[in-house]
Design a protein that fits this description.
Chain lengths: ~210, ~230
């Protein structure tokens, strides 16, 4: 009866021999077969260096779709505090997420405004629609229904545009010369005296009560 | 076809408005002089363009209506800076309550005093001069106050605060990036004052924007009721 230890050693030797033979076979066969696989390298060269129009278009479409889908997926991962988790943003996410976030934030602001207008209109509350919308948005932020990061950029964009929004309103009084002839003598002293009084009152009260 | 031409026409006047504003803004940023603020000069430029092209102002107002409509959502957007600075508001709540409450009382007092000397519709409009324009317009619309007078009052008080505000306050010792300066500018001169406060420094700017937002909220909640009594 053969010693099991000796048997194991023999089998190890056999396996080593086998491996060596497979290795040598692979070396030989790969050396032999390489010229026959040249079609593959030609194809690879074709694909990477001279793609036709359809291929180029398909690749562009594919990458666009990937950008869009990855961006949306990454953007929708909203957690409290505006963090997006451990996942690193992909190239697509970096390109698309600000747009998606801005549109989402703008939609929240617009919806708050529309809801505020609806409440003021239906319940006849004597405050401006925008102020009611502002209160609603503050409630949404307080209840963490909307993370502040979601609306920050849209809000900043709207506030950046704020001075432009007055321009069409100011055009009408500026073009109305009789208006200025009639009201300038009353308007200017009221604004100057009232403005100075308000400035000083606010300044002294702030100085008294500031912590 | 006609619809698309109308859309193109409206888009043209919107583009001219934006170009006029950002052109004037460029000049303002280069010169950095408060009197060259684009809010003052771009409407004048547009009035000139409208006169040269013989385009009626009423038609222009309709074409630029989308920009005016955006004022409502912009008021809502003010909630975000107020929310982000809630720690500042909580720390200084007493100051904000007294300043905003005091400014409302001053407005009511001025309404009662000035009504003895000037036209009532002018005085009612001037009560709103320290509120940011979109809120002032909303209150004016609700309380049957003349919108053109309200707008001019808001604009003039903004320009007054921007140009003369820091000079007046410097006379009383408020110099540099101080919270009190920002509070005064935000309370008396709303958005234009806040822009000036941010030029002075970040502390003044932050306090000014909070004060402007809180004033907008407080005026929006109280003044319509007061103006409905004084008619």
């Amino acid at each position: 009866m053969a010693n099991p230890m000796t048997q194991g050693a023999m089998s190890r030797n056999e396996s080593e021999r086998c491996r060596t033979s497979i290795g040598s076979w692979w070396q030989i066969s790969s050396r032999n077969s390489r010229p026959d696989e040249s079609w593959y390298w030609e194809y690879w060269f074709e694909r990477n260096h001279s793609p036709d129009l359809a291929f180029r278009f398909a690749r562009l479409l594919h990458s666009l779709l990937r950008w869009l889908i990855d961006g949306v997926r990454w953007s929708l991962k909203i957690v409290k505090g505006g963090d997006v988790g451990d996942e690193k943003p992909t190239e697509a996410a970096r390109r698309w997420s600000p747009i998606v976030w801005d549109l989402g934030g703008l939609a929240v602001i617009l919806l708050s405004f529309i809801a505020g207008s609806w409440i003021v209109g239906n319940f006849d509350i004597p405050i401006p629609n925008g102020v009611m919308g502002m209160i609603l948005l503050l409630c949404l932020l307080r209840l963490s229904v909307v993370p502040v990061d979601f609306v920050r950029r849209a809000s900043a964009g709207l506030l950046y545009l704020l001075p432009v929004l007055f321009v069409p309103l100011y055009v009408e009084p500026f073009s109305d010369w009789p208006f200025w002839v009639r009201y300038a003598s009353s308007l200017l002293p009221i604004v100057a005296i009232g403005g100075a009084a308000m400035l000083l009152l606010a300044y002294f009260l702030a100085r008294m009560f500031r912590r | 076809m006609i619809g698309s031409l109308n859309l193109l026409h409206d888009g043209l006047w919107l583009s001219i408005t934006l170009l006029a504003f950002f052109g004037c803004r460029r000049v303002y940023l280069r010169s950095n002089h408060a009197l060259l603020h684009p809010v003052l000069w771009s409407p004048l430029l547009l009035v000139g363009i409208l006169a040269v092209t013989r385009h009626p102002v009423s038609a222009y107002r309709q074409e630029a209506a989308p920009l005016v409509w955006l004022l409502g959502p912009t008021v809502v957007a003010m909630a975000v800076p107020v929310w982000e600075r809630r720690a500042l508001i909580i720390d200084n709540w007493r100051m904000f309550v007294f300043v905003v409450g005091g400014s409302i009382l001053i407005s009511i007092a001025s309404l009662l005093v000035l009504a003895q000397f000037f036209e009532l519709q002018l005085v009612r409009a001037m009560t709103l001069k320290s509120v940011t324009a979109p809120v002032a317009l909303g209150i004016a619309h609700k309380s049957m106050v003349r919108e053109d007078l309200t707008l001019v009052g808001v604009m003039l008080s903004g320009i007054f605060g921007m140009v003369a505000g820091p000079l007046v306050l410097a006379y009383f010792g408020a110099r540099g990036d101080r919270a009190e300066l920002g509070v005064a500018l935000g309370c008396a001169s709303h958005g234009l004052g806040t822009a000036r406060a941010f030029e002075i420094g970040p502390t003044a700017g932050a306090f000014s924007s909070v004060c402007m937002g809180l004033s907008a909220l407080a005026y929006g909640l109280t003044l319509p009721a007061i103006l409905s009594v004084v008619q």
